[in-house]
Amino acid sequence: MNDFEIVTDSSCDLPADLADELGLTVLPLSFEINGKEYLNYLDGRSMPLHEYYDRLRAAEPARTSAVNVDAFVGAVEPLLKEGKDVLLPAFSSGLSNTYNSARMACEELAAKYPERKVICVDTLCASLGEGLILYYAVQKQREGKSIEEVRDWLEQNKLNLCHWFTVDDLMHLKRGGRISPALAFIGGMLNVKPVMHMDDAGKLAAVGKVRGRKASLDALVDHMEESAIAPKTQTVFISHGDTPEDAEYVASEVRRRFGVEHIVINTVGPVIGTHSGPGTLALFFLGTHR
Q: 160-286: which CATH topology?
């Protein structure tokens, strides 16, 4: 039996019950709002997500922190002591130091437990994009694949995990340094919405812009049509920044246009939401390229 565990971080934004069903160990990143620090648990126990987004809407200052090396060591070492190997797919190195912390923890533990396998993967994914690639990793694990085979699948397929998203308020991207203050101001005045994706370096990249919210939502589905691999057979994930109605609209379009049956919708957690803001809408699927 391939006795290994998958450990990851809360940037994956999976529904807590789905993460439990998948058997994942999920370490919380942290976020700070109005000077007070909270842990980003998937079940929102530190702060309900609707409250968090209301506080962002009220312009309370917020920032985020990566998982540190000691936290990863503390989560992984007990599993190694139980005789289990550990696969650790982590939040994109293009957006966070979380992967580097995970890598250093794996190196430290591999030296301490040479008889065990401790493997770290930079997913180059974020939010439910990370969640979706974890979902597939667990399916491979359940098919009986070895830890090395699952690692190899992740490495071979992570740049096919497409992240397409838009935001409702450009000012949050401006605060995070993603766009210029001038563009944020003009875009807000003209009702311009960016269409963005995760590039091959695991960083956010602007691809285009459209006028109006509905056009930006439709653009995400258009990009899926351009690159999705056999979309009807896929599991598709959608995340939103406290705008469930928009998420349901995108889901309905994905079902109508491609016949997709399995769609998972969840709220963007504080780690990503701090930088993308309320009104974020993201669509994740497997494609021929990002």
A: Hypothetical Protein Tm841; Chain: A;domain 3 (3.30.1180)
